[in-house]
Design goal:
heterodimer, A: 322 residues, alpha/beta, 2-enoyl-CoA Hydratase, Chain A, domain 1, 8-stranded mixed β-sheet, 14 helices, 49% helix, 16% strand, B: 281 residues, two-stranded antiparallel sheet, 9 helices, 10 strands, 34% helix, globular
Chain lengths: 322, 281
């Protein structure tokens, strides 16, 4: 498994414990005191390291190649899933998946951007970068959900919409705008969960929910740290500094009132234990879905609009006052 | 005849530097056209709605100049002013704001107010590129929303001239992103009440501005040659490593691909918008 530089001390300790255990198996000597000492030390170190991650360390966790993808989450969260394809206009965009799923017996519509794990998958998924037809498919499925009164779950993990010639020709900006606008007024409950990357308009196009949750090692901002660093210093390698400035972690976003809750990941990140991560998300989904499904739909839409209407920081003064 | 002057001019116009007000055209007597290279007497340029006398190139306009072209100043009732704060404590942002305020004399990038265009009352908004690239932070977002809300209350149409380079205002991070949702929703409420929104895209309308309210007009117009798109052309080229088609992301390109209703030269804009407003009264 790919390891990050900052977690190497823990991994080294864990390796030593494993070695010692193996050695003990074949020997007569008693190392149990030594082992439990090391285990305590490893646990402490792990807690120290993972609870004090820098924003950019979280960004790299969000991009970990073994982190669950949207289809993995769908598998972990739902009892059954039937994928529905296509935008009915141009083609099926593999970078966004969606369809019908059963959540603890409840039919829902689930939609999310899909990254690939290897080159072949990444080509089919366009590296998880959606075209306008992906957003149009998403909107089609959302309207379908509204028609049948199904709740919508969006699972968001996308660096941004694809910046390509054809994507521009087919109206990338327009597709995103339409998604945002129509999603805002949908007469059905929407729960949005940022599972990994929440990059710019391409993420917001799926993120206009009644409740917005975020995994512990996910990020959400107007721009990626790399692009921000390029704009500020013409140097994308200073992304770690930019990540600090952008305040893109769940802790900051919770404080800002942008998200409603943070879903705890297993120590060391979601990629370390897919099943546990799935269980965590399930319990949050259960709770939040129950809440928003109880709200009468007229009020639900009004509250959704009010939620975004409030966002923004400014002062009610003019230059002349200064 | 071989047009030797086609393309970008070899020599840039020298602009007055520090200390003096930076404008979209230099403060001297003559301006060279960015498109055809012709030297134009500034007074003539102003008289000609800042259009090149030869090739019709649309020079960038400040918000105030555009306002003056669309309506009488005495008929313009501006919305209460708002000022930007620094929600992320982003280093250098307050200085950037102050500098833009000094250069433009504006509070922020949006001019919003109630007025009449060719006798038709409306809420008019202009986003000024010269204020931090016309980017949408909390102030621009809030002003736009208040404009649409006022229009909804008084059952008025809305006309917005967008011109935002990068779209979002990076220094406000997530708050800037959320203005996309906020403004799109304001358009949605206004639209669902059966009211008219004319979105005019001026050079350049990109990113978060294009991917929110600016795309949601009942009628979408553009000035000739305006850059319109989601991702900037440089990003597209760097990502795809493909040669960009001629005229990529221009208004003409957007029209050909079905993304806008019409291209309207600046000289005809007031009449055009005025007529649309009249037909919806």
């Amino acid at each position: 498994m790919q390891a990050f530089e900052w977690e190497k001390p823990v991994l080294a300790l864990e390796e030593r414990i494993a070695e010692l255990k193996q050695f003990v198996d074949g020997a007569e000597m008693d190392f149990s005191a030594e082992i439990s000492h090391l285990q305590r030390k490893a646990a402490k170190l792990r807690k120290e390291i993972y609870e004090n991650l820098t924003p950019f360390q979280r960004v790299t966790m969000a991009r970990h190649p073994k982190r669950p993808t949207t289809l993995d989450y769908i598998n972990l969260l739902f009892d059954e899933f039937t994928e529905l394809h296509g935008d009915r206009t141009f083609r099926d965009d593999g970078a966004i998946v969606g369809g019908l799923a059963l959540f603890e017996g409840l039919p829902v519509t689930v939609i999310g951007p899909q990254k690939g794990r290897d080159t072949k998958e990444n080509i089919a998924r366009n590296f998880g970068l959606p075209h306008p037809e992906g957003y149009r498919k998403s909107l089609r499925l959302m309207k379908q959900a509204e028609k049948f009164g199904r709740p919508i779950i969006t699972l968001i993990d996308v660096v941004g919409a694809f910046p390509g010639i054809e994507a521009e020709e087919r109206g990338q900006g327009m597709a995103i705008a339409q998604c945002i606008e129509e999603m805002s007024f949908l007469r059905t409950p929407i729960l949005s969960i940022i599972t990994g990357e929440g990059g710019s308009g391409g993420a917001l196009a799926l993120g206009v929910g009644d409740r917005v949750l975020m995994l512990e090692n996910a990020w959400y901002s107007v721009i990626s740290p790399e692009m921000c660093a390029t704009i500020l210093w013409r140097d994308s390698s200073r992304a770690a500094e930019a990540a600090e400035l952008l305040r893109l972690t769940p802790t900051d976003l919770l404080k800002f009132g942008i998200i409603d809750d943070v879903i705890t990941e297993p120590l060391g990140g979601a990629h370390r234990d897919h099943a546990f991560t799935g269980m965590q998300i399930r319990s949050f989904m259960r709770r939040y879905l129950a809440t928003i499904m109880k709200i009468p739909v007229d009020r639900l839409v009004e509250e959704r609009l009010a939620r975004f209407r409030r966002i923004g920081k400014f002062s009610e003064r003019s230059l002349a006052d200064l | 005849m071989l047009n030797v002057f086609k393309g970008r001019p070899k020599y840039a116009t020298v602009r007055p530097q520090e200390g003096s007000e930076r404008k979209d055209f230099p403060d001297n007597l003559w301006t060279r056209c960015d498109s055809c290279g012709r030297m134009i007497f500034n007074k003539e340029l102003e008289k000609n709605a800042f259009l090149c006398l030869d090739c019709g190139h649309h020079f960038r306009l400040t918000g105030r100049k555009r306002l003056a072209m669309l309506t009488e100043e005495k008929d313009f009732e501006a919305l209460p002013p708002l000022l930007a704060v620094n929600p992320l404590a982003f280093p250098g942002y307050p200085e950037k704001i102050r500098q833009a305020q000094e250069q433009t004399g504006l509070d922020d990038a949006a001019i919003m107010g109630k007025t009449a265009v060719k006798g038709s009352p409306c809420i008019l908004g202009i986003i000024d590129f010269s204020f931090i690239g016309g980017s949408m932070g909390s102030v621009v977002g809030e002003q736009l929303v208040r404009g649409f809300e006022r229009a909804l209350k008084e059952r008025l149409p809305v006309v917005i001239f967008s011109g935002g380079g990068g779209g979002a205002r990076m220094h406000e991070g997530i708050f800037s992103l959320m203005q996309m949702a906020k403004t799109a929703q304001a358009v949605g409420r206004h639209s669902r009440a059966g009211l008219l929104f004319i979105s005019v895209l001026t050079h350049p309308t990109m990113g978060g501005v294009y991917a929110s309210f600016a795309s949601l007009g009942d009628v979408i117009l553009a000035e000739p040659g305006a850059l319109i798109g989601f991702a900037g052309p440089r990003i597209v080229q760097e990502t795809t490593r493909q040669e960009l088609p001629t005229g990529f992301q221009t208004a003409e390109y957007a029209l050909a691909h079905g993304m806008i209703d019409a291209i309207v030269p600046r000289s005809k804009m007031v009449d055009y918008v005025g007529r649309l407003l009249l037909w919806h009264r």
